[in-house]
Amino acid sequence: TYAPKLILLDISDINCIQDVAKEILNCYGCVDVLINNASMKVKGAVQSISLELDKKIMDANYFGPIILTKAILPNMISRRTGQIVLINSIQGKVGIPFRAAYAASKHAAVGFFDCLRAEMEEFNISVSTVNPTFICSYHHQPAPANWEASIWK
């Protein structure tokens, strides 16, 4: 039995994810179940969302979970056991208007984790993708000229 340890991680900050994964593995030695459940979304017309914000959404919803999974995966493979879960969104299967960046990031994540599932079968590692329908999340009211405040977390 291990005492819980709080480790803070901003999944959209892709430069720190591998260090956090190393910290977790150094502390506990392994990860039995990895649940990727962080997400960001923004609502707006394609032409009104900046490329900078598109990239931020992609970092949080696609690259973040992938970098974390890849950092934990070698340990699971060496032990030939583990479970990886991606909590995604129905928008990873069907896009809706005014959510292009979000839907694109979720589609990409589904594709990656579908491929990973097939590759990990031989190592007895289970990979699951959960695509719930719309959920309630909190929203920061945007301040003028502050695109980060328009992100749903």
Structure, described:
By secondary structure, this protein is an alpha/beta fold. The chain has a domain of 98 residues: NAD(P)-binding Rossmann-like Domain (Rossmann fold). It has a three-stranded parallel beta sheet with strand order 1-2-3, with helices on one face. The chain is globular and about 50 Å long. It starts with 16 loop residues before the first helix and ends in a 23-residue tail after the last strand. The mean pLDDT is 87. This is Dehydrogenase/reductase SDR family member 7C.
Helices and strands, with pairings:
Layout: H1 17-28, E1 33-36, H2 51-79, E2 82-87, H3 100-120, E3 125-130
Parallel strand pairs: 1-2, 2-3
Salient structural properties:
153 residues, alpha/beta, Rossmann fold, 3 helices, 3 strands, globular, SDR_fam, oxidoreductase
Question: What's this model, at a glance?
Answer:
This protein has 153 residues and is of the alpha/beta class.
